[in-house]
Amino acid sequence: MQKIKYNSLNSRQKENYNFHKVAAVLADYGFTSIRLSDDWQSADFIAQHIDGETFLKIQLKGRMSIDKKYIGKNIHICFPYGNAWYLFPHDEVVEYLLSSSNIGKTVSWIENGAYSFKIISQKNINYFKSFML
Q1: Which of 26, 7, 32, 28 has its CA nearest to residue 17?
Q2: How many helices, marked H, and strands, marked E, lie in the chain?
């Protein structure tokens, strides 16, 4: 067997790869993950905790992203950055970013309703540490 090179995968293959990687990490926190074949209520997958009460609707992203279409839908965003995975409640982070930066005034947010970070500032990395898995 030979390990694959992530960069050689197409976008659908990367999404499948990322799902399995993060599902393994979430298992360490007591979650079983269920992949959805089609976005259900904006979620790519559901993470069910062993407590039988906690269910997270998760949108899997290739990088840190927020989007107006997820507001009010109780969605968590999960993305890799560096050697870690981050999982955050979308609306809480939108509120923080809009109040602490100029994202709300960008063309991306105003016209497209979304914003993503290829590189995360040190200030935001410090904020996101609490969401690192």
Answers
A1: 7
A2: 4, 7
Contacts of 41 (CB under 8 A, 6+ apart): 57, 73, 75
- Supply the pTM of this predicted model: 0.91
**Which residue do the tokens 């989007």 mark?**
67
pLDDT digits (tens, 9 = 90+) for 24-45: 999 999 999 999 988 788 899 9
What CATH number is given to the structural domain containing 110?
Answer: 3.40.1350
Work out how many domains the chain is built from and give that number.
1
User: Residue 108: which domain range?
Assistant: 6-131
Task: Give the tokens for residue 123.
Answer: 């200030």
Among residues 58, 67, 66, which one has the least CA distance to residue 85? 58
Classify residue 1: in a domain, yes or no.
no
CA distance 133 to 121: 19
**Reduced to 3 states, what is the DSSP secondary structure of residue 31?**
strand
